[in-house]
Amino acid sequence: MDFSYDYGYRYDYPSIYHSSIDDTIFGAILSIWLIVLTVALIFMLVSYIFHSIGLYTIGKRLGKTHSWLAFIPFARDYFHGELAGEICLKNKTVRNPGIWNLILPIAFEVIMGILIVLLILSSIVGTVGGGAGIGIMMLIVMYVVLIILTVVYSAVYMALRILIGVQIYERFTSHNMGIVHAVLSVTVPLYEAICLFVMRNKDFRSGMEPELTPPPVPPIHPGAPIHPEPPVHPGAPAHPEPLVHPEPPVQPVPSGHPEPTVHPEPPVQPVPSVHPEPSAPPVSPKPEEPGQNQTTEL
User: Fold this and answer.
1) Sequence spans of domains, the chain
2) pLDDT above 70 (res 230)
């Protein structure tokens, strides 16, 4: 008889419990990923809009005729470089920074794609032809080449973007602050878009104003009639002033006929003053006789 015992324990739980935990974890991870993706898309959209508006306004103020390129992908990279103009270094001059700013990323992506394909093919060929050791060696060599190429491209492209940023920012601020803004624009996300948006309406520095050329004058072909320019009608019609006729010139007196001499008038004699008549002396009263006065009293 077999008296062996089985001391193992088994617990049978329904599979619904495990599936619910897995669904909860998956749902949480998916929610976090969607939140991160939404925030990243919002940042990218805000950066694109601010960056495009800043480039468009600055291009208009600099007199660029194709400022609308600031809103088109890839084309705005070219327009961004063209706003900087020629970049003068110590011994060299970058004449078309816009073209280099557009071509460098595209060329890097193409070269990286080709190298990745060669990396896969070389590892396969090395493994098949020389064994696993040769395949791993080829894989390491190609991987090192990709790292070196990435580092060189990043350094060159970052230097180009800093030079372009300095050329643009120093129109509105000092040279040292332009370098600071350019470095932060390359290293800090969303900084370049906000900086361009803020500086788009700032006054130019003294001596950094754009040299806007006047519109070209259409050529005049010989023999073609020249149309007169239409008169400018002001708000109120101005009446022409009457013509003032010049006074006739004074004819000089001929020397043969002397002018008649004018005799001076005799002086007017003053009128003699009228003397007043002498006044009559006052009449003194007559003395009364004594006999007459007595008769009257009786």
Assistant:
1) 15-199
2) no
